[in-house]
Structure formats: structure tokens, C-alpha cells
Input
Amino acid sequence: MALSGSLALALLFSLLSCYASVPSLASSDGFIQCLSAAIPRQLLYTQSSPSFTSVLVSSIRNPKFSTPGTVRPLCIVTPTNASHVCGRRNDVRIRVRSGGHDYEGLSYRSARPEVFAVVDLANLRSVRVDQKAATAWVDSGATLGGLYYAVSKASSQLAFPAGLWPTIGVGGHFSGGGFGMLLRKYGVAIDNVLDATLVDANGRILDKQAMGADVFWAIRGGGGESFGIVLSWQVKLVPVPPTVTMFSVTKSVDEGAVDILTRWQEVAPALPEDLFIRVVAQKQAANFESMYLGTPDTLLPLMRSRFPELGLNRTHCKEMTWIQSVPYIYLGSAATVEDILNRTTATKSFSKATSDYVRQAIPKDVWVKIFAWLGKPDAGLMIMDPYGGKIGSPPESATPFPHRGGVLYNIQYMNFWSAATDGSAQTRWLKDLYAFMGPYVSKNPREAYANYRDLDLGQNVVVGNVTSYEAGKVWGEKYYKGNFQRLATAKSKVDPDDYFRNEQSIPPLPATK
Ligand code: FDA
Output
């Protein structure tokens, strides 16, 4: 058993067994009574609890889902231990929250009227590193910062390849794939998952062997809230050198950004795996941000031979340890390593995002037009992460995350606004740019990254009491390509009654398929 608070497993078991499948307000009183009898008062927050709002917003990362119109949970449970056993007697669905970064807020709000409770795993956050074996067990409620910190304390030469933002929760991040600056060297986070503990809809606690190969395959990237609650993950840690080199070089359009970016598309995915150079394009400039697993002594000659157009020189290079690079990317050079343990974020910006994959380099004349989009009033930005290397090596079906061989890079489009506006101009810009990009990105399906969730790509439809497979295909094949059907098969095995669901959860496979 992997979870540090194994008692907590029992709590979740008990919580799950409190739920059946048909939500109704009438049944919710009994549900709360059930929980009150089973759970210490301080771990259960009903809407009338004085701390309900502060617990709810504690990991809301997008204030647009914290307005009076947001469909909020009936109650929030924050499991820490176990003596909270409760029989099956009520009909309320749950949503699971680990770090709360879901782009559509689906871990704590519903896009449609619905009665639901939130199980917030923030208190289940231990990380247990086995330095000798170079593995770790990490609870879903840990943040990436918490994971990285614990790994670096155990060994300065071990790391884990996952996202850039330290406040992201392990539970949601691994459920959708998870990539960061080590993606070319070590692939996606879920490529490095060895085992996991899952609570299924019947309250059973399953490890890799007990859940079976299909379900273990599915939870590694097939989307959160679809198969059960993943409590804990065993991961393989990866070696990093004592020194990494970071650089950030900004080129304006006047300084040749269009030519350099056009060239970057071919160069970046073909570089040695130790070198990762991503691009943030905003307004009339492109910022090339990089991590190199080595020192400037080998980086500079490599850049001179492979990407001289960027004009990298020693003054651009900052040497540091891998763990120091985490706060450096996130908060800049003044940040300390301890800053990555801070779970709170003070994000005041409302935001909307979507994504694309590029398999053929976009011509220069199109980049000229893209920079015209980026120069519009109310424009947002584009973040481009190069693939190639390890992320591109496994076959598309090795994990649910299918964006492998042949992908040059991922694009994330984002736009931001403040509470002072309704965001319609910024959202329109995002939609119009997405439409403009159609001819230049992947097709049939137009691929998208599951962790950059966008409900505009399609939403589930419930027919009878089960999510429609055909409606799910619309968004599901963008995130998972040909793996969508196998995900639905796994769903049918572990949750045939579709207890775990949200607006983009995997539907069970119909018997006719
Ligand atoms: P959250 O708790 O909101 O969960 C997301 C989804 O997973 C929800 O549907 C939830 O119900 C479900 N879920 C959560 N825990 C679960 C569990 N234990 N078992 C089953 N289901 C569970 N991505 C990336 O790959 N690289 C990056 O660098 C970044 N950077 C980034 C920065 C910022 C500021 C944001 C807001 C987002 C990113 N992301 C990212 C995207 C991020 O990976 C994605 O939003 C993850 O789903 C967030 O996981 P959380 O646990 O924080 O979210």
C-alpha cells in the first residue's frame, strides 16, 4: 500500500460508498447527515460553514470560476484520515480536486446545474523518495513544487520530468499527461509512472495489478475524473547533471523574430535531447526560453552550429542546479527554492486557453500574419513547446497521450482579462485566431492537449443515465486520437455505470461497439 495516510484511503472508500448515481437536492440533506456522522467536523465544509468559501477558493486558479453565477459544490471534504466510514445511502456525485488548475475549473464547479460534492485532496500530499532505487511515491494532493523539492532534498542529481508551474497538483497533471522542460530528454510525466493506487466507484482500493492493464494504461493520461480517484503514484526519477544552463533571448519582429521563429520550427525538435528551447510569442516579439542539461562550454558551440540565427552568447547563459531552475522559470532570479512549496497563487487575471499541434512547419508568410494577430488590441499570447526526442519515441498507443512521432511542437493559445471587462473581446480573439490557424496545424483529428482543457472543443451529452460515446468522440479524439475507444473500453471495465463523470470525462463503450 503506497499512501502515507493509509487511513485516508479508508476515508475515501467511505466517502465513495456514500454516493450512488442520481443527484437531487432532496437527497442532499441525507448525504450531509451521512458525512457529518462519519467525518470530523473540521474536514467537512457545507455551504453554511464559515470557512466554506475560503476552502473553495483556496486552489481556484481562474477567478472567472469564482463568481456568484458559478455552480458551486454542496459541500467540500478534505480527507486526512480514516475513521470516517459511511454506508451507501445517498445520491450525490463528486468532483475530485488535487491542485485546482483545471482550465475549465471542472474539479470544483459544474458547467451545468448539478448537485455535487468536492473531494479536495490537498491534505494528502506526502512524497516518499527511495533514493537508492531512484523512485518515489507521491500523493495526488502534492504539488509539482512539493514533488520536485522532496526529490532534490533526497539527491541533487535526481529530478522528475513534469510541468513548469509548481502549484499544479500531481493528481490532475498526471491524469492528462504532464510535460515541462525535460520533455525532450525524458518524455511526459506519465511515461515515468510505475504504479498507482486508485479508488474505484465501488470503493475498492486498487494497485496496478488489481486494476488490470487496461485501467492502469487509462489513468496515465486518459483524463481525470473518469476512472476513479487516483490517490498516489509511484514514479521513476531521472538523472540530471550538477549544472543546467538557462537562457532567455527576446527578438522583436524588427530584429528578425519572424525568420528566427520560422527556422526554430525545424531546428528545435531535432536538437540533441539535452537542449529544450521553447517560444513565447506575444505582441511583436518572440521570447526563446531554454534549459540545457550541461554547461555553456558545450551549449555555445552547439548553438553556433545548429541555431546561429538566435545569436546566443555567454552573457545570456545562467548556470544553476536543476532545482534552482524551477523557481527561476516560474518567478525569476530573485525567487528561492523554498518558494516552490507555496501552494497559494495570487492570480487576479481571468483567462481562457486552447491548444494545437503542428506537424508541418508553418511558412514564413503565415508567421507574418500571426504576428499581425498578436498585435491586435485585446490580443493574448502563444506558447510553443518543441517535441522530438523522448516525447516522440513511444508509439501513439503506448499511453493515452498520443501526440508522439511527427509532432514538431505544441501550441498553447492564451488570453487574459480583468474583472473590469466581460472578456468577450479576449475570448473572441482566441476563437478567431484558432479558426485562422486551422489550415496550418494537425488535421483529422485536429489534435489538442488534454491538460489544456477547452470545453469549446465539445462537451459530453448524457443519454439516459450514461454519457454518450458519440458525443464524447468529438472532443475525445482531439485529445486522444485513436486511443479514445480503448479509453472507453477501460471505462466500461472500471466504471460501467458512469459514476465518475464531468463535461469531458470518458464515456463507457456502448455494447454495440
Ligand atoms: P485539478 O485539481 O483542477 O484537476 C484537473 C482534473 O483532474 C479535474 O477534472 C479533476 O477532477 C481531475 N482530478 C484531479 N485530481 C484527481 C485524482 N486524484 N484522481 C482523478 N482525477 C483527478 N500542463 C503541463 O503539462 N505543463 C505545464 O507546464 C503546465 N502549466 C500550467 C500552468 C498553469 C498556471 C495552469 C493553470 C495550468 C498548467 N498546466 C500545465 C495544465 C495542468 O497540467 C492541468 O490543468 C492539470 O490538470 C492540473 O492539475 P491539478 O491537479 O492542479 O488540477
